[in-house]
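I am writing to request your help with a piece of structural work I have in hand. Thank you for your consideration; the sequence and its tokens are set out here:
=====
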Amino acid sequence: MHTPLCRHAQGEPVDYAEAALAKGLKGITVTCHAPLPEGYSPGVRMRRDQWDEYVDLVADTRETYQGKLDVLLGVESDFVPGLESWLEALHSRNPLHYVLGSVHPQTAEYQDRYFHGDWTAFQHQYFTSLAEAAETGLYDCISHPDLVKNMAPASYNLEGLMDVIRRSLDRIAETGAAMELNTSGLRKTIPEMNPSLPILREMRSRGIEVVVGADAHVPERVGAHFPEAYDLLEQAGYSQVVYFKHRNRVELPIPDARRSLSITSSEQRASSPPPS
């Protein structure tokens, strides 16, 4: 989940915490968009001089909800080749529970570097970038792993990309990084979770663990579609999910995760707006 510091989310961490309590969650991990050096998509992330403000904001929320909700400090941190040392220093500034690695192909910087008029080649590069991100060792988990499909849906041929995806997953599995199942994909141009079931099955066959995330940018999205996510993971052959605390992996059987929720799939569908 995010904070207003990223410039495209609404609600303070306390609002997300209240939503989490209402939905039966035992804890939340705040993963707002990390700063980058000047010139890297500045309109969708906190500034470098706001990092301490972010850390304090989460710490204040943790103190407020002590004994009621576990509030963890994480970050969603973009992978940018050539900035590995800069990112490593950022991740080391404060004790973090979770570092979520992202490749955002929709940013102007990524497209300037990799898009040359061929959408298929661009999609190949995107999945290669996911593997490169994992291989840096900077990240606990790789986020929304097929996000690129929403940029040019008519040009997205999953079957034709599977060899590239499998090679990327082989590399990610070798690093031991987890990967995210992001439920906010249901609201995107291709309305399915990121990643889709065929990719989840390939992940499962390689022993890649999964973190379920709602990618909430408004409090109402906290825990959105988690029951459906667990259904999808079980279809793919998973029996557990994971989350991170002190950068260490915590395993949770899916039945236990289900029992921790006070909402049902039907209730979520009834309360959720249509995909956009």
Notes: The mean pLDDT is 94. Residues 158-175 form the longest helix (18 residues). The longest strand covers residues 70-78.
